[in-house]
Amino acid sequence: xxxxxxxxxxxxxxxxxxxxxxxxxxMLPVARKPIVQYVVEELVSNGIQQLLFxxxxxxxxxxxxxxxxxxxxxxxxxxxxxxxxxxxxFKDLAVHFFYTRQRVQRGxxxxxxxxxxxxxxxxxxxxxxxxxxxLHAKSNVVTRLVEVFExxxxxxxxxxxxxxxxxxxxxxxxQPQDGVGDHFPISNLVEKPKxxxxxxxxxxxxxxxxxxxxxxxxxxxxPDKRGEIQLTDAIQLLCEEGQRVMAVRLQPGEKRYDxxxxxxxxxxxxxxxxxxxxxxxxxxxMLDRLLAKA
Length: 294
Ligand code: UTP
Fold this sequence. Notes:
The protein has helices at 35-45, 60-65, 70-78, 82-88, 108-113, 116-119, 141-151, 213-220, 231-240, 262-274, 280-293, and strands spanning 4-8, 29-30, 33-34, 50-55, 96-101, 124-127, 131-133, 156-162, 172-176, 183-191, 202-210, 245-249, 256-258. By secondary structure, it is an alpha/beta fold. It contains 11 helices and 13 strands. The chain has one domain: Alpha-Beta Complex (Spore Coat Polysaccharide Biosynthesis Protein SpsA, Chain A).
């Protein structure tokens, strides 16, 4: 059983400037909630019991968001707004929150290394803080990753999503060892390949499980030309070492919303707002009116 997760949220978010100048991209709202709240809700619903956020400068609002706010709770209780209370009160969730800082933003691999003491000798989940899986975080892929990790005695399991072949250059792409099924072994990873060089159209989708072996691999990775330690290089080393590395495919209802750039942020916001149980129908009418005028 895997009970710990790392959520790296220390990146600069330069592709979302100026929105991210003084607020973390992981706190940008998608419809009615900040991105990172969807991530936490997904992990809790998949049985994760302790979360370590890898934060950095200008990221204090994440810690504040998950902290208690007695004044707010009192006001919501007095005005009988039960639903809002449930959506803002995290202390009753079956999960413990921990925080540490990545002092210098030296890439995702380096961020993961900041969780080494927290993970200790146990396998752990890694969930990117800027990626939501499934509309309103309805995905159980984490549970499936855990099952495959345990049944296959793997060192690493990654969630993968089918992407259009012409878009492989935006993603880390896996190379299946033999065939492809709901889950399958992989023999390599290629970071951002051109479509003609891509070994598949299956992209790593922001959720991973690792044995603690990954920390040694990360330490062996040389920084890239931007000075960043890439996590995919460390997974590649696991493959080279002959370790069992597996992929689990996202199912159709588990689309990955990667809020790393503006087009994808806009699309995610609109899709979540349209699906909102309270405001969706009204928003759809408004959008129709706007589109008719445009
Ligand atoms: P990205 O590469 O998308 O994030 O990392 P970024 O560096 O913030 O984005 P740009 O390129 O500047 O626009 C995916 C996740 O990993 C975290 C980010 O916060 C994000 O949630 N990350 C990235 C770290 O925690 N530390 C890093 O050094 C880099």
